[in-house]
Amino acid sequence: MAAGPAAAATDAPLLVDRTLDDGRIWLLTLNRSRAGSSIDTSLATSLISTVRDAELDPVVRILVLTGRGKYFCTGMNLGSAGQLLSTENDDDADLFDVLRCSRVPTVAALNGPALGGGVGLFLACDLRVATRDAYLALPEVRRGLVPARIGPIVVEMLGLARAKSLAITAARMPVVPDLVGAGIVVQVVDDAAQVVPAAVEMARSVVLGALGAVLATRKLFDAVAVHARGETGALGNVPEVRKCVRQAFAKMMGSEEAAEGIQAFMARRAPSWAPQEETAKGATGAAVASAKWAGKAKL
Asked: Which PANTHER family does the annotation name (predicted)?
């Protein structure tokens, strides 16, 4: 279910198709394929605004979120990092919380790898469909950074042990068998061309349910999960957690490690703290994989 010619030609950071099933399903496509659909200020603002619009629309019943190109989303655009953080106002809208707590149900269609903040977007959705060869990865520590803003949702959805393993080792978490086995992905397709149609079909199965019953069920299950944790809401909304996230993000962005990691990323070289043999390799092997998108300034 590819975007039409007009939609494909637009430079908008987010493509929104409001025509599916007479407007009951909106298809949201991250449209920064040349930058791996990395999250900059314009994309974050557009996504938050679209979710808010959907919440006010009496017709829309569910949102489908996907990426355009090889990647679902490669995470935060390093050039926009400072703008994506507000250290003064704890009530500002957070992209991942807005998606996670939206009144409108959501389906993620993982068309390719999700890195960094892309993992947060993927896990923030209610239901998830993925192509077989996709994977999740948190490469932040390789760049001297901390996955602060997505930390709460990663821990909440994957559990502490898996979240630590993913974040500290920067290893890939494949769709098969890991995400399927963990119940994170509910349907797998063989290639990217099939993932949006499969997600739309899943969305249609949600639309068949009574609106009030669907919303009440989501609210009940979320409340049960929250009660089991002994918290007062989604982890990202707990005041103490939000404070820790903002402090960690601000401290990280001002650190020498972050400065060196970003410079190394942009220069396609290993950072100074890498083992000598990795430094000697330069932008080869693992360094090439992590530096591939250096020219696009994202993580």
From this structure: ENOYL-COA HYDRATASE, POLYKETIDE BIOSYNTHESIS ENOYL-COA HYDRATASE PKSH-RELATED
